[in-house]
Amino acid sequence: AKDEAPNSIVESIYLNGDLSVADSLWQLSFNASKIKLFSQEWLIEEDNYIRFGSNQLETKQLELFNGIKRIALESRNNNRGLKFALTNFDLSEVNRFLDPEQIQLRGKAYDFEISIGDVFLMRDIRADLLSEMLYINEKPYGEVLCNLEMEDLSKPVLGKVFLLEKKSQKQLLRVAGGVQIQGKPEEETDALKDTMRVMSAGEFWADVRADQFPFEVIETIVPEISQTAGRFGGNLKAYGTLVHPFVEGALDIAEGQFMIDYLKTLYHIKNQTIAFTKNKISAEGDTIFDATKQHFALVYGGLEHEHFSKWKINCRVESKDPGFLILNTTIKDSDLYYGRAEGKFVMDVSGSFSRTNIAIEATTGPGTRLYIPLYTTSDAAEAKFINFERNKPKAETRKKDFVISDLKGLNFEMDLSITDQAEVQLIFDEQTGDIIKGRGEGNIKLAINREGEFTMYGGYQIVRGEYMFTLLNFVNKPFVVTNGGTINWYGDPYGAQINLDATYEANTSVYNFIKEELELLRTARPKLLDEAARATKVIVTMHLAGDLMKPSITFGLNFPNITSELKSVTDTKLRQMRQDQAEMSRQVFGLIVIGTFLPPSSAGFIQSSDYVATAFNTLTQMISNQFANYLAGLASEWFGGAVSSLDFDIIYSDYQNDVLSDPNRVGGREVNVRLSSGFKNDRVTVQLGSQFGIGRPGIAATDGFLGEDVTVQIALTENRQWRLKVYQRTEPDVSGQRSLRFGLGINFQKDYDTFEDMWRSFGKAISKKRRSPR
Length: 774
Known about the structure:
about 775 residues; 7 helices
């Protein structure tokens, strides 16, 4: 016979035997046969029998074998009793009857016996189990020892279950109790006196005591957590029926940890209590620590249930300081957004395990890095010499395919208040380094609904930042994002609106830029040509506005260190170029790619040597970036959190002037060395810079030390509204010579949404001043 059911114990039976009468008893004996149990073949050897009559039961060598595993049926108690014995049984066979996503067992039962003292009266029934190490979901728990007894079918089943530590045999878990199978007991047994009542059919009671029990067991109850570890103890009372059980008592967690899989954050618990009531498991006021064990939060509420079914979550977690670790994910965990989020937060979790709601209100703190991948390219096309326009090859298809199957059933919302202590990165192309990095302030709402759709609302204003502009996958130039830039989201994370300015500094001469104007002044102002031929600081301003994925980009130029006489000439040229953005883009191309302005006619000017110089300029920037990262790592190791940022730049500039008739003004080489460092989360910043002219053979005008800059800025208040700035700069004076300039200033900044808010704030400040005692 065969049974095709997938969870069947007996799958097939092939028996060959005889039924006869011996000594007035029926006798059943088997020849060599086999039975398929638990997908394994068990053999029956010959010379066996079972004899039975009205008051007698006798067996001989009635056994099944499978390797070292053995199943035996033996008669006992003057042939009125029976014992069923199972040796070396694999507990994993029970998994076919369990939910594989919730619990799986592994281990070996050395001995499992069920004995009946009198089969005909069904009295003195007993069961015993002894196993080796028990694994639940591949985590070790201990050795199992179990004893069950029942006087007869009208009496309750009484028993004890022990979980023992393997080496010391210490009791990790002790369960003692009873269950009434049918009818009512005639009198209370000693064991039942503890319950102070008589049980009805189907009712049970149990006393559960744990001591140093593995905390990993929580994974079998709560989904979406992992990396559990630790120990707990406690006392619980269980009673009711198997259909409607109740549990009361408390567990004391000596030390434990667990990770929330979605946030990838590890939490620690020490010396806390979990209370069990009839329909709730709660942790009112319990303290949990983050992965650093330096910041803590309080837990309120817990799990609600109806007799351990229909589970509901009603829990709040509230941090008590601004450094709690909330999020710690990588791009492998989620390509929506990822990073490390530290701050102060309130998290509410509700719903069921299958339809969970997570709502977080958080304010970022020090150490926060949030990455938002946008997955597009930023290389400039070459139409009409150069066209700075961002491509958008993936935005449309990405939006249509944006569904996360593994998050279905979860409704996640995060209201994030971002401070300038946090860094936000918008990643256009991670491989080329096309990233906008910013520190600023804003409020952003991130939401993922049960269908896996991701939305973003809110705005972000950049206080300081940087943008690595990539061109043709060859040139990478760092732009500094200026204060006041904004990024606003209106639902679509890829449909944000951007409005920001970024600047790039280069050192070159302005000769090519104003060559036509200088030709007219060659005779009247010959010294002006010398000044124009020297290298000076040039600031390129890039303005991005509109769609974040395809912004409108315009450029501007500024010359902060030239003399007033030369400035009047460059201002005239700039007014002309503002009407011709194509020419402006051409000059910006020259500065970014070649390192110098282009003459009015570029024919024959851009030679292969120019590109070699550009490659060398770019190489020095790459080396300085790597060196800066190395220094930042050393500073973090040596000084801990005292040094919050460190940038080291060595910028090599090789520029040319289109003055073939005057070899002394052909061009020059310069090296700029700049060190910027921030302390105490950038509340104190120091910038040191020096400029050296290398020149060319026979050119003395640009040789030697050219100037230095020293700037110290201190945030006087926690909110950084008041700042003190002290600086020393080398700038040209009215005579065209370079001289030192010193400065001291105090800056106050506060943002208001409307003029009404601003005047209301002023009114409150004035009223407070009038009420203050003199």
